[in-house]
Amino acid sequence: FDNGALSGLNIHITAGPTREPLDPVRYISNHSSGKMGYALAEAAIDAGANVKLISGPVNLPAPAHVERVSITTAEDMLEASLEGISNCNIFIACAAVADYRPTSIAEHKIKKGNEEIMELHLVKNPDIVATIAARVDKPFTIGFAAETRDVLSYAQGKLERKNLDMIIANDVSQAGIGFNSDENAVTLVTRDTHIEIPQTSKRQLATLLIEQISQLYKTSK
Ligand code: PMT
């Protein structure tokens, strides 16, 4: 692999979960550990890129030479993703962004009442990767699709709907890959190719993905 394949290019990568607060002590989130996104950041650095890593709350150190921006909510992630976007060449959305957030954040801890059922009201969060891909100065934009069934057809749908250049389909129903594990297996989907990458470490997978991304980026120019 050509170590300078992404030399001089600016890459933004989102990673980890978002946290959507309900009150001062509670939030809605998911099981993303950030491992996949951080591995991509490392692989992109190795390929010579300038990397901004927009990260939700995770227990990982910032990879060497990466500019890490730590955020909490989807709205914060969008704002940080848009910062410097007109100079961004490649945008990779690996974060597991909460699709909805509580309509309001209680100022004080919500107290337990007598009722057995409690209803939460949620409102849709902005779609970060779709917002980026809708810009006139759109970077080469790559999303992930975390699915538990009909993985390829849902991934294809997201590729089209969000106007992405590539989507990485991730079957998160299988034990040992996907959320929080050290290994992963994916299918890289574009409008005209499907490339299966069998199970391997997230770090090794990241190198393979960055290699494919740099090739497709170059042919898109
Ligand atoms: O962090 P790890 O523990 O290593 O796990 C890795 C992973 C499973 C989180 C990762 O490989 C992965 O699949 N990430 C995408 C998770 C996801 O939420 O996918 P989705 O199918 O819901 O979203 C589709 C795409 O839209 C994703 O690129 C997502 O970042 C993006 N999105 C979704 C919602 C939203 N409001 N804004 C977005 O940008």
From TrEMBL:
Q: Which GO terms describe its molecular function?
A: FMN binding; metal ion binding; phosphopantothenate--cysteine ligase activity; phosphopantothenoylcysteine decarboxylase activity
List UniProt keywords, sorted A-Z: Decarboxylase, Flavoprotein, FMN, Ligase, Lyase, Magnesium, Metal-binding, Multifunctional enzyme
Q: Where does CTP bind?
A: 99, 109, 126-129, 144, 158, 162
Highest taxon listed in the record's lineage: Bacteria
Q: Mind telling me which residue stretches traverse the membrane in this protein?
A: none
* Chain segments carrying region Phosphopantothenate--cysteine ligase: 11-221
Q: Among the record's GO biological process terms, what is one?
A: pantothenate catabolic process
| Co-factor note (free text) | Binds 1 FMN per subunit.
Q: Known EC number(s)?
A: 4.1.1.36, 6.3.2.5
Pathway field: Cofactor biosynthesis; coenzyme A biosynthesis; CoA from (R)-pantothenate: step 2/5; Cofactor biosynthesis; coenzyme A biosynthesis; CoA from (R)-pantothenate: step 3/5
Identification of the protein by name: Coenzyme A biosynthesis bifunctional protein CoaBC
Its source organism is Neptunomonas japonica JAMM 1380
Q: Name the gene for this chain.
A: coaBC
